[in-house]
Design a protein that fits this description.
The chain is of the alpha/beta class. The protein folds into two domains: 158 residues, Lyase, Ornithine Decarboxylase, Chain A, domain 1, CATH 2.40.37; 184 residues, Alanine racemase (TIM Barrel). The chain is built from 13 helices and 21 strands. The strands form three sheets. Strands 4, 14, 15, 16, 17, 18, 19, 20 and 21 form a nine-stranded mixed beta sheet that branches. Helix 2 packs parallel to helix 9 and helix 5 crosses helix 6. Pathway: Amino-acid biosynthesis; L-lysine biosynthesis via DAP pathway; L-lysine from DL-2,6-diaminopimelate: step 1/1.
């Protein structure tokens, strides 16, 4: 079995994370419970930053917070000197609530509302990543009416096909995101922005997808954007000062996954940029990247309590847990794979092959179809690894299940950072019926 970060097994045969016993955490905070290994987050953040520093490149490493958003994780990101990628007014509000430095906030999204863009201007954030022509007009309108400047990047789709699931591929020509690099849209966006008195065009942005293991696509994307930057210099005497190459760096969910070290992705992309700036005599831009999953994915573990079980002779054994697709939609949404352990019986052989089923009223609510556990019985604590990205952030109240609590663990200490929802929270926005029945009006 593969353990991650600070995970280990203590003298009680229990899984520990950040020096704390997961069984104790489950008993203290209840289950389902999301536990984050904060030391691993810090380690990954440092690795990205140090790689740029070692290559002598000015850079910003922005945490792509859609992977997991909360005040506490934004505070950790700020402690590590990261920037922040937000994609909605809600994420921006969370960043403001965390008092995150506004000049290091980058606002993404393919359908930013007028209100959200006004909010970005109100907070004087560091950059808006322009996604479409409608947004250009909105940003211009706000900037001109206020006579306030705003830094922007143009998001482009470089036409690079990344080897990943269709649902998380974003860099190909047929994408809802960005301006197409090949059909002239990117040039048209540039012409609408680069000479505007209140728009400070920094450069370009691309994001080719998520959970990518190879570096070829990243290199091709960097080359495509650099070629366009050189063309803008030659044709318009415009120099891009920022090149944002996005994120999407893969992590290990199962033993079949073979991710590279964070430094490798950075080195491969940066080498292309360095080479092309030298060959074209182009000023080296500041490089921005946006890791999300690769910072929090394998730093997160979800703890469940085993409940009922069912054996279908000759087919499979089901073990149900007290969560499921309501706190981790990824297996049901696009067949994401995970591994699990019996957190309270780590020293016992994990040879029983079972399907871990959730408690939602859906046949497809299965977290892992062939998990190997230690003869699971009711009351066992089952830990599912690598749930730190797109678990809690995509959680729902389907079947009116409360969202789980979130705990950070580091150096033998643990802290609740998101409280568990209650049934009262579930109905908090409901409004009792006040309409008068028809027969009562006669």
């Amino acid at each position: 079995m593969h353990l991650y970060g600070t995970q280990s097994v203590n003298e009680r045969g229990h899984l520990t994370i950040g020096g704390t016993d997961t069984v104790d955490l489950a008993h203290t905070y209840g289950t389902p419970l999301n536990v984050y290994d904060i030391a691993l987050f810090r380690e990954r953040a440092s690795a990205f930053k140090k790689t740029f520093e070692s290559m002598g490149i000015r850079a910003q490493v922005a945490y792509a917070s859609k992977a997991f958003s909360s005040i506490a994780i934004y505070e950790i990101a700020e402690q590590q000197g990261l920037s922040l990628d937000v994609v909605s007014g809600g994420e921006l509000f969370t960043a403001v609530s965390a008092n995150f430095p506004r000049n290091r906030i980058h606002f993404h999204g393919n359908n930013k509302s007028f209100t959200e863009l006004q909010y970005a201007f109100d907070e004087k954030i560091g950059c808006i990543v322009i996604d479409n022509f409608s947004e250009i007009e909105l940003v211009k309108e706000i900037a001109e009416s206020r006579k306030e400047s705003m830094n922007v990047l143009i998001r482009v789709t470089p036409g690079v096909e990344a080897s990943t699931h269709d649902y998380i591929t974003t860099g190909q020509e047929d994408s809802k995101f960005g301006f197409d690099l090949k059909n002239g849209q990117t040039d048209e966006a540039f012409l609408q922005l680069y000479n505007h008195p209140y728009i400070n065009l920094l450069g370009m942005h691309c994001h080719i997808g998520s959970q990518i293991f190879e570096t070829d696509a990243f290199r091709l994307a960097a080359e495509a954007l650099m070629n366009k930057m050189v063309a803008w210099r030659d044709n318009y005497e415009f120099i891009c000062t920022v090149l944002n190459l996005g994120g999407g760096f893969g992590i290990r969910y199962t033993e079949e996954d073979k991710p590279l070290e964070p430094s490798v992705y950075v080195e491969e992309m940066a080498t292309v940029v360095l080479s092309m700036t030298r060959s074209h005599n182009y000023p080296l831009p500041e490089i921005w990247i946006e890791p999300g999953r690769s910072l929090v994915g394998d730093a997160g573990t979800t703890l469940y309590t085993a409940g009922s079980s069912k054996e279908v002779p000759g087919i499979r054994k089901y073990v149900a847990v007290d969560g499921g697709m309501s706190d981790n939609i990824r297996p049901a949404l696009y067949g994401a794979k995970y591994t699990a352990v019996s957190a309270n019986r780590m020293n016992e052989p994990h040879v029983d092959k079972v399907t871990i089923a959730g408690k939602c009223c859906e046949s497809g609510d299965k977290l892992i179809e062939e998990a190997q556990l230690a003869d699971p019985t009711e009351g066992d604590i089952i830990a599912v690894f690598c749930t730190g990205a797109y678990g809690y952030s995509m959680a729902s109240n389907y079947n009116r299940l409360p969202k789980p609590a979130v705990v950070f663990s580091e150096n033998g200490q643990h802290q609740l950072v998101v409280r568990r929802e209650t049934y009262e929270d579930i109905v908090r926005l409901d409004i009792p019926l006040q309409l008068v029945r028809r027969e009562e009006r006669i």
